[in-house]
Amino acid sequence: MGKTLDNVYKHQSLVYKYFLYVVSVALIVFFFPKGGKFKYEFQKGKPWQYENLYAPMDFSIQKTQEEIQEEQSSIRSNKTDYYTYNASLVSEMESEVQQELNSVFQSENFSSSQRQSLRTASEEIIDEVYVHGVFQNLPQSASTVVVKSNQAQPISPSDYLSLEQAKKKVAELFAEVNVDGGNRLQSIIKNSLKANLFYDEVLTESALNDELSKISYTRGEVDQGQLIIAKGEIVENEDFKILSSLKDEYESELWMGSNYYFILLGYIILVALVLIMLFLFLKRYRNEIFQNNNKITFIFFNILLMVIATTLMVKHYENYIYMVPLCILPLILKNFFDARLGLFVHVLTVLILGFVVPNSFEYIFLQIIAGIVTILTASELYKRANLFISVGQITLIYIVGYFAFHAIHEGNLENIEWILFGVFILNGLLTLFAQPLIYMFEKIFGLVSDVSLLELSDTNSKLLKELSDKAPGTFHHSLQVANLAEAAANEIRANAMLVRVGALYHDIGKMERPTYFTENQITSVNPHDDLPPKESAKIIIDHVINGIEIARKNNLPDRVIDFIRTHHGTTLVYYFYKKQQELDQDVDMEDFKYPGPIPFSKETAILMMSDAVEAASKSLKNPTYAIIDEFVEKIVKGQMQANQYLNANITLKEIEMVKKVLKLKLTNIYHLRVEYPE
């Protein structure tokens, strides 16, 4: 049991990778839409590539979303408005008119027959005006129904009466009636008129929903065994609708019973294969990243983020899947790693999504082309304009690609979904969030981007200003080394920005005791003259340890601290070692060696060469081109013989190129001309 635990502990890095792999596969498959995959690929306007297709089952032909929306729109535009007839308001009005008449009868001398005639006339006119009712607001719909005594009665627009129209009708009716006191009665009725038809929103919406619910989502049936399409036949509009209906029926029925487990197994195998390809690529071509679990986690996190976002969009808003800014993935990975890895991961992610998105060929084509454009155009993201230019080109590729596919499928420019152009533009705007995402990922995963390196390279930063104040000679030396190292890195296509930042900070440990380093000694007094060689060597060596401590206190990234740790490797403090030998032949060499480690990348190797050459060049008197050439060769050869570059992935050819740049730069510094042979 104990031996097993020991093995697990020894291989914990590998165990973590297995765990990450299994969790990633499980999460991706979990978020996949629950449905089978139709085994035929087809596109409108393209020939049917397979054998004659006969209906494998009875199924209904589904209406397209556009057809359903058109029917719904037609029902809404022709909906019936319902109004409630309020009979109590009519009764109240009649009572008011009768009370007014009684007041008139008491104050004026009317015979009983006149009184009866006026009462009869008022009742008849009120009944005539309110036969359909008086509207509070006139209906705008062509179809109107009045609910009166729990009975729905449709009325035509010619019968509509507003309050003003009702008053006019009263006047017209009185013109046909000849009774004494008619003018007085007309005035009373007009003043008492009230609207009694009110819009019933609840009943109207209920009736509308009832009509909408009756819409059929199918239009016709296809019987089992019926020929759907023959081999080589062009998939026309009607064929496309039938095939799409069969596909929907097939996928919905397939994800049932025992089929569920086979489909799940198929998804797991395919996703597992894709992610295995990623591991193999990293193991073979990016072993440094493969060994770093933090970086592996970062890559898988970004893949999962894009896959989950897209699958959720497919489930809920299928028509807007291009709104997911998939090109953020290669943009971020190129920023933190390199273009080749960024494109490889992007392609694998698109292949995973190809299982679940509609029109998978179109989607894969557009996303891969957009990813390639991202890789080719996105460079130096710390320059703000570059990101906007790259995003503009990505958006243009989406728009042009969609336009081309539409032209192929439809054969014309009709029925273009203009809203998709808005989706592509929104995709581009969302891609701009790569910048804040890069900042977040730096903080979460401890990675360093070019944007952060640019900020660190600012010589007005707090730490570099402190170095300039406390150790001005060291600061000047660091600037010179940064220039040499940056030029060398550009020559061999290493990360020039990283090398420059590493060079600027590599000697910050000298701030602790600046006068013990010759470049900071203003007077001829050397504090080492009063110290034993062993103690002097310790002070010199300690600037590496002190530098690491200062860097950590100031939250410098680990990639920058690596330059502080490795810029002397495990070399010897030769001057004080020799002085100690003069005093005592029995000297432990380890006491005079830097703690290391030795450089483990091209960038750290370049800094070691540049630092040693620049520091030693101060001792050159009357340098010539030949002297500089021999001087650089001697220093680099000494470092190679001390096995300082064994772990750095730098070739002999690249070392020769670095030496050539260093010689040229020193020649320029000392204003020398190249000596031509006679």
TrEMBL record:
Concerning InterPro entries, the annotation shows: HD/PDEase_dom, HD_domain, HDIG_dom, Metal-dep_PHydrolase_7TM_extra, Metal-dep_PHydrolase_7TM_intra, PgpH_phosphodiesterase
* Membrane in keyword set: yes
Q: Which Pfam families match?
A: 7TM-7TMR_HD, 7TMR-HDED, HD
HD domain spans which residues?
474-616
Q: Does the keyword Transmembrane apply?
A: yes
**Which superkingdom is the protein from?**
Bacteria
Q: Where are the transmembrane segments?
A: 14-32, 260-282, 294-314, 341-357, 387-406, 418-439
Sections of the chain in a coiled coil: none
Q: Which UniProt keywords apply?
A: Membrane, Transmembrane, Transmembrane helix
What the entry lists under PANTHER family is as follows:
CYCLIC-DI-AMP PHOSPHODIESTERASE PGPH
Protein name, entry field: HDIG domain-containing protein
Q: Which organism is it from?
A: Flagellimonas yonaguniensis
